[in-house]
From TrEMBL:
The protein's name: SAM-dependent methyltransferase
GO molecular function annotation: methyltransferase activity
Source organism of the structure: Candidatus Onthocola gallistercoris
InterPro entries per UniProt: MnmM_MeTrfase (IPR010719), SAM-dependent_MTases_sf (IPR029063)
UniProt entry keywords in alphabetical sequence: Methyltransferase, Transferase
Record-level GO BP terms: methylation
Length: 185
């Protein structure tokens, strides 16, 4: 099966260069944060968010081990607060919606906070910037979040944004869906 995270990384490679600014809105175990830090280089910056202290600490250690500690600013707060913590435009943002792999499956991203986060971060995107939102929705609350996000993305003005939806159509059991949002103006 195609790994959607690999697709997210391929798209991110085409969007970021040394000195870019990126956001990992759902830090989790730090895999995307580390990957983005490698792309933005020493002059770039990655802002990463998670509500769980253990996710932030795990990511901090992971980045320090990779030599990327100075490239990232980590926040222990909801992704809904992300836009308010960033004082500059960004080139890219990434979400992995659902729950922390290996963590408490009762602690999940939710429709309300995800919509607030997406709306805020779209406002921070530079012209030609990209948002990548990977939705895992097979858990309680996941379908509500996915449907709410999809309705929100469908109403974005076509003159300002292109929105692409990528998913496996021949898979059962809630295959992940990737939304790619490109800011046109």
């Amino acid at each position: 099966m195609m790994q959607m995270v690999s697709l997210v990384h391929q798209i991110a490679k085409g969007c970021l260069t040394k000195g870019s600014r990126a956001v990992d809105a759902t830090m989790g175990n730090g895999g995307d944060t580390e990957f983005l830090c490698g792309l933005v280089g020493e002059t770039g910056k990655v802002y990463a968010f998670d509500i769980q202290k253990e996710a932030v600490e795990h990511t901090r250690k992971r980045l320090e081990a990779a030599g990327y500690g100075e490239r990232a600013e980590l926040f222990c707060c909801s992704h809904a607060q992300a836009a308010g913590k960033i004082d500059e435009e960004i080139d890219l943002f990434v979400f992995n919606l659902g729950y922390l792999p290996g963590g408490d499956k009762r602690i999940i991203t939710r429709k309300e906070s995800t919509l607030a986060a997406a709306d805020g971060l779209l406002g921070k995107l530079k012209s030609k910037g990209t948002g990548l939102i990977l939705s895992y929705y097979g858990h309680a609350g996941g379908m509500e979040e996915k449907n709410g996000l999809e309705a929100y993305l469908k109403q974005l003005p076509g003159k300002s944004y292109d929105v692409l939806q990528i998913g496996m159509v021949n898979r059962d059991h809630f295959p992940p869906v990737l939304y790619v949002v490109k800011k046109l103006t």
